[in-house]
Write a structure and sequence with these properties.
binds protoporphyrin IX containing FE, Cytochrome p450, 3-stranded antiparallel β-sheet
Length: 361
């Protein structure tokens, strides 16, 4: 999927150039959101929507409306407070009054599948799962053994492909936009660290086109992004259900209880993170990581339900940083909010945007 991301990165650089003309203040929250919309549309649906350049794309405006924070916040609040309401709320949210997101995505996927020409190579999520579906039987479950795991496997139906694309879309769009925008914020806030990163990029790449392998091998970039995802973990929490009664530090968690893991609090706990509010990428050197409890850092969750988009998200975030720093330096300005005020909600969004200035390199 790297070529798809590279194309979106080119548009990202052009967009920043345009928006910052005449020393204007840019809003990295807006800019990053256009970028990640483009990436998820091309990597999930094979659609080139150019939301960074064309503001009135029909798919983008519908998708943004469907992902509206307020509507989702009400949905989450009710489901978390009254778990038994989950199925009623899900049915209600599929009515046209609430956007009918699922129907919309089913239609999009069905149209894409109809239009697909088998001679053309697509490198997106839909292609991967449809190839699998065309070679496997959709009706029959086969038992698969993989290491110690055992599960039933069958090909996905068209509806299942559509709904999984929707999950892919909603889980991968806002989260990555937050990691890209807060990366720019941290670059501007800590100019010495920005220079260190620029030095690494210049040394390994210069003005060459960033590739997957080079970007993923950059050591300081990895430390930097890890620290961004500690202080600004896009998902402030994730959830589990207790499979049996368990006692932890004298607290009984009864079987079937809903358990929320508060990533935001965990990542700022002074027991694991000395001086937790200080931005310090060195916390993630191999030596320092080895001294810490492995579950003290969970931006992507952990275990069998760990984020499936983790590698894509890291690649996308790192690619965006490299492309941006090959062209610009970020600086804070009068309009930069320090510290950033967060929106209330499940995701760690900046309430008033992330206002920065850039200088050309
Ligand atoms: C920086 C970006 C991202 C962050 C911080 C993030 C974080 C998370 C977290 C915390 C979970 C819950 C894991 C758990 O319960 O253990 C999760 C699940 C998930 N994420 Fe991400 N995510 C990101 C990007 C993406 C992307 C780009 C995609 C897809 C393209 C994606 C798809 C998913 C899916 C499908 C799940 C559900 C997995 C399951 O339940 O088995 N995420 N993510």
């Amino acid at each position: 999927m790297t070529p798809l991301i590279q194309r979106c990165c080119d548009d990202l650089v052009d967009n920043i150039k345009k928006q910052s003309e005449g020393d204007s203040v840019i809003d990295m929250k807006e800019i990053a959101s256009g970028f990640t919309m483009d990436v998820i549309c091309s990597t999930a649906f094979g659609m080139q929507v150019n939301s960074q350049t064309e503001k009135d794309n029909q798919f983008v405006s519908y998708a943004r409306r469907a992902m509206r924070t307020q509507v989702k916040a009400i949905f989450f609040l009710i489901c978390m407070t009254f778990p038994f309401m989950k199925s009623i709320m899900t049915a209600l949210f599929e009515t046209p009054q609430f956007g009918g997101t699922e129907h919309f995505f089913k239609k999009v996927v069905s149209d894409i599948l109809k239009d697909r020409n088998s001679s053309k190579i697509h490198r997106d999520f839909i292609q991967i799962v449809t190839e699998d579906s065309s070679t496997n039987d959709k009706s029959e479950d086969t038992e698969v053994h993989q290491g110690s795991s055992r599960f039933h496997s069958r090909a996905l139906t068209e509806d299942e492909i559509a709904v999984n694309s929707l999950i892919f879309f909603s889980a991968g769009f806002d989260t990555t936009s937050i990691s890209v925008s807060f990366s720019a914020y941290c670059l501007a806030r800590y100019p010495d660290l920005q220079d260190k990163l620029i030095e690494e990029i210049d040394r390994t790449l210069g003005k060459e086109i960033p590739t997957h392998d080079i970007v993923m091998k950059m050591e300081y970039l990895d430390l930097f992004v890890s620290e961004v995802l500690r202080l600004y973990a896009p998902s402030t929490r994730f959830f589990r259900e207790a499979r049996e009664d368990v006692s932890i530090n004298g607290w009984l968690i009864p079987k079937d209880a809903d358990v929320t893991v508060c990533v935001y609090a965990l990542h700022r706990d002074p027991e694991y993170w000395p001086d937790p509010d200080t931005f310090d990428p060195e916390r993630f050197t191999e030596e320092n990581k080895a001294k810490r409890h492995p579950y003290a850092y969970l931006p992507f969750g952990i275990g069998p339900r760990i984020c499936v988009g983790m590698r894509l998200a890291l690649l996308e975030t790192k690619m965006a940083i490299v492309y941006m720093l090959q062209n610009f330096k970020f600086v804070t300005c009068h309009e930069t909010e320090i510290p950033v005020i967060f929106e209330k909600g499940f995701l760690l969004r900046a309430e008033n945007g992330i206002k920065l200035k850039v200088t050309q390199r």
